Each structure stands twice: as structure tokens, then as C-alpha cells.
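Supplementary Methods. Inverse-folding protocol.

Structures were first reduced to a C-alpha cell string of length 142. This string, shown here, constituted the complete conditioning input.
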């Protein structure tokens, strides 16, 4: 189990690191204030839905942070399946968002956003690759 878990964690960290660098490069012109938002819903783009949201302290500051998996709601990516497997297949992309809460402002700051780590359900004969996220003892488990 550990042999499988370590490569998965390494891939996630590398993927998050790449996304974070890309996001920083894209957002260099935006101000720091744009990253602090009072409400979690402000981080959810229009036409996206929350698949799951969990709370827990991820940065060891004794303040509950938030991890969210969101999914686009584009109806063109929801396919009716007439073959074996599920009746409808939602191929919309999913995104993992991690928000750190700032106790002094009571707002949230975007810590990580990864647009590729949470896989969408692509094959009707197979189970959905995403089941849930959990925060246990300061660790996000996917």
C-alpha cells in the first residue's frame, strides 16, 4: 500500500506545484487583495458546482481551512449512454481548490488550485475515479 501511495502523493505534489507556478505567472498583475475573499462561494466560477467540500486545519495554524472539489456544469459534456454502464456520463472537468483561512481577516486565501488532478468520469463501464476527499490530522486525503 505504501509503495502505491508514495508515487500518487508525489504526482499530486508535482502537479500542484506546476499549477501553482502557472497560476502565479498568469496572475502576476493581480493584486494580493484579489486572493483574499470573505466567502468561499467567491472562489467557485460561474457554471461550476461544488462536488464536495471539507474543512480542517491544513497549515497547522489552528484555523479550519477548506478543500473543495468543483465541477463544470456544461450540458454538452453530459452524455446519455445506451450501452453497458451508467445511464448518463458527466465528462465535465473537475478542479481541486484549497483555501487557507486567515483568522485576522476572517477571509480565505487561495493556497492551491489544480485543474487536472481530480479526474472526470470518462468511461461508462468503469466506476467514477473520484470518490471523496477527507481532512484527517491535518492531511488532505483524496
Amino acid at each position: 500500500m505504501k509503495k502505491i501511495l508514495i508515487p500518487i502523493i508525489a504526482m499530486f505534489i508535482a502537479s500542484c506545484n506546476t499549477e501553482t507556478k502557472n497560476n502565479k505567472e498568469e496572475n502576476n498583475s493581480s493584486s494580493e487583495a484579489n486572493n483574499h475573499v470573505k466567502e468561499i462561494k467567491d472562489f467557485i466560477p460561474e457554471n461550476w458546482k461544488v462536488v464536495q467540500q471539507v474543512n480542517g486545519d491544513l497549515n497547522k495554524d489552528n484555523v479550519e481551512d477548506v478543500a473543495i472539489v468543483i465541477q463544470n456544469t456544461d450540458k454538452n459534456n453530459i452524455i446519455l449512454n445506451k450501452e453497458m454502464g451508467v445511464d448518463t456520463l458527466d465528462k465535465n472537468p473537475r478542479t481541486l481548490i484549497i483555501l487557507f483561512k486567515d483568522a485576522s481577516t476572517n477571509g480565505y486565501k487561495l493556497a492551491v488550485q489544480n485543474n487536472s488532478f481530480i479526474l472526470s468520469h470518462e468511461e461508462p463501464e468503469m466506476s467514477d475515479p473520484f470518490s471523496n476527499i477527507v481532512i484527517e490530522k491535518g492531511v488532505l486525503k483524496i
